[in-house]
Write a structure and sequence with these properties.
elongated, 3-stranded antiparallel sheet, homotrimer, 5-stranded antiparallel sheet, alpha+beta
Chain lengths: 138, 138, 138
C-alpha cells in the first residue's frame, strides 16, 4: 500500500468564499503515483469546509443567502461561542456543508461524476488556513 | 491491496425519492471478494445524495417536509442558480443530506449498526443518474 | 495492508450530549500499530453523530439551540416517524451533523488540524449506543 500527503494553503480576501480546488487535487493525485484507492480531502480548520457541488456562480450566491438564513453571521452576540470570537456562525455553516470528501481513485484519476467539482468553502477567512489531502492505495 | 468499482444506475419516476440500496451494496461487496477494508458509496451527481438512516416510511415523509422547509423547491425563481434550470433547491437539499458514506468492511460484510440502511436520495429525478461504489482492502 | 476494528460504547444521562472522543480514538490508533492510512469513525446508530469541531462549551450550547430551531424535538406529534417513537427530531439533527468522519493517519498519529476534535453527538440518549472505529493502512 502506498500513501501520499499534501497540504493546500488558503488566505481568502473575504470572510466567506468558495474556491474550486479540483485541479489542485488532480495534480496532487498525479504526484502520488497512486492508481487505485481513496483520496481524502478535508478542511483542517473548524470554520471551513470541503465539499463537492457545481461550479456555477448563481449556485454559490444561493449558498451564501441560504447559509446566512440557516445560521446568520450577525448579530454576533446571538452565539454563546462569541465571547472572544465572532465566528459562531462559521462553525454552524461548516456543519451544514461538511468537513471532508472522500473521492475514489480509479486508473490514476479522480473518479468524479460529470459535474462534480471539489470546493474549499471558507466561512471565516482573511487568515491562513489549510486543507489536507491524503491518498492511499496502489 | 485489492480494489473494486461498480456503478449503480437510477431513474426515479418522481422528482424526489429515497431508495434503499443496502442489498445492492452488500452484493457488490461480495463480488469484490474483499474481507477487510473500506467501502465508499457516493452520488455521482450534485443534486442527489447517499446517506445512512432508518428504513421507515414515516421518517421519509418527515425528510420530505423538513427539506422542503429548509430549501423549498418553489418558487423556482427564488434561486440564482435557476436561470436555465429549476433545481437550485436540489443542490441545497443534497448539501444537508450529504454526498457519500464510507462503510467499514469487516469479515467480508458491511459493518453496519442494527438499524443502519444505505439510501440513495434523489432530489431532481426523472433522469438517469449514477452512484459509485468503490471498495478497497484485502 | 493492516486493518483494525474497535467499538466504543456510550450511555448518556441526557437526551442530547456532545462527548469529546479524540483521546479514545488516538489510543485505538496506537493499539492498531498502523502508521499510514485512513481512520473511519462512525455512529452505528441513526440518531447519533460523529463529527469534528471545536471543544468549546459555548459552541455546544449554540449547537443545541440551533439544532432545536432547525428540527425541534417537540411537539413529538409533528413528525410522521413518531408513531411508536419520539425521536423523529433526532434523525433530522443527526442528518445535519453527519454520521461519520474519515481522518488521515500520518506517522502513527491522527492527522488533525490545530483545533480539530472528534465528537460523539447524541440526539436520543439514555440508552446504550455504539461508535465504530475502523482503521486501514500499514
Amino acid at each position: 500500500m502506498k500513501s501520499y500527503r499534501k497540504e493546500l494553503w488558503f488566505e481568502t480576501a473575504t470572510r466567506r468564499a468558495y474556491i474550486n480546488i479540483s485541479t489542485q487535487i488532480a495534480t496532487i493525485l498525479q504526484e502520488s503515483g497512486i492508481k487505485e484507492g481513496l483520496c481524502l480531502v478535508n478542511a483542517m480548520h473548524i470554520t471551513a469546509s470541503v465539499f463537492i457541488n457545481d461550479d456555477e456562480s448563481g449556485l454559490h450566491k444561493d449558498f451564501e443567502i441560504w447559509l446566512e438564513k440557516l445560521a446568520p453571521e450577525k448579530p454576533h452576540n446571538q452565539y454563546n461561542h462569541n465571547g472572544y470570537e465572532d465566528n459562531g456562525d462559521a462553525h454552524l455553516k461548516r456543519s451544514v456543508m461538511g468537513r471532508e470528501v472522500v473521492v475514489a481513485v480509479t486508473d490514476g484519476k479522480l473518479d468524479l461524476g460529470p459535474w462534480e467539482q471539489i470546493f474549499y468553502g471558507e466561512f471565516d477567512g482573511k487568515r491562513k488556513k489549510r486543507v489536507l489531502v491524503k491518498i492511499i492505495g496502489e
